[in-house]
Amino acid sequence: MANPVFNNSPVFQDPVQRRGQKSPASTVSYGTAGAQVADAATLDQMYAAPAATTRETGRLTYDDVIMKTAGLLAILVVTGAATWVLAPGLWIVGAIVGLVLGLVNAFKKNPSPPLIMLYAAAQGVFLGGISAMYESWYDGVVVQAVLATISVFAVSLVLFRSGKVRVTPKFTRGLLLAMGGYLVFSLVNVVLMLFGVGGGEYGPLRSGFLGVVVGLIAVGLAAASLIVDFDSIKRGVEAGVPAKLAWTAAFGLVVTLVWLYLELLRIFAILRGD
């Protein structure tokens, strides 16, 4: 989606709008001394002209990522609100469909916009239903979780932009190891819960004080994942990758935001429950 501010600038102007304009090179002639002076001026203009922008060359831009991420979040919010009002019980269907589509999109080499939008819709059904359920238990908990999610996202972006947190190979390896450990921990908790070992509404390892501690660790991992996402997008833009990969970037950000929101929702529910 074109921004009119950039559209009105020659630097960011759509190449289609430039068609039919007289090329500077077409004014070059070699007849008289006066013409030679004009040719030199034309060459100076050509050298001073800005290089082709990423938008003109079909390359990834930050605007592409922002717009597609906003679009996916809009789909998620609309479907979530509809599910909250009309059929909260469908959250389990949304969770299963969202999981399947998430895996499909994660392993596809080329992004599929329809599948990614369907993923956002499925996650909207899931989050809308489960949020309605939590809200019925603890009034105001959803607003708390949403505001906390926005805050963590903003802090992560500020830290990344400030350069205070740098994504190095060591940072990435540490994050992958920590997320692997968190995944194993979560699976153990699910198994214990299925076999009735221990207690707690969220399993023996995710309830009470321990549940809050684990949740805060998960929030930290999600925030670190956002910083890695930002760095990946930055490198993609600088490398001039195809614009279609904006869908991949937006998909990755939505996945992380959904995880972050769920962890914060669980933390506030535990605190409110106690």
Secondary-structure-based class equals: mainly alpha
Into which percentage range does the β-strand content fall?
Answer: under 5%
The tally of structural domains comes to 2
Note the overall shape: globular
Mean pLDDT, as a whole number? 81
Strand runs, count? 0
Helix fraction bin:
over 70%
Biggest sheet overview: none
Number of helices: 10
Query: H/E order of the elements?
Result: HHHHHHHHHH
User: Which regions have little confidence, pLDDT < 50, spanning 5+ residues?
Assistant: 1-38
What integer value in Å does the Rg equal? 25 Å
Separation, N- and C-terminal Cα atoms:
47 Å
Transmembrane segments: 65-84, 90-107, 114-134, 140-162, 174-197, 209-230, 242-262
Keywords: Membrane, Transmembrane, Transmembrane helix
InterPro entries: BaxI_1-like
Protein name: Bax inhibitor-1/YccA family protein
Descriptive keywords:
274 residues, 10 helices, mainly alpha
Describe this structure in words.
The structure is a single chain. By secondary structure, the chain is mainly alpha-helical. The protein has 2 domains: 45 residues, no CATH class; 212 residues, no CATH class. The chain is built from 10 helices and no strands. α4 packs across α10 and α7 packs across α9. It is globular. The N terminus is likely disordered.
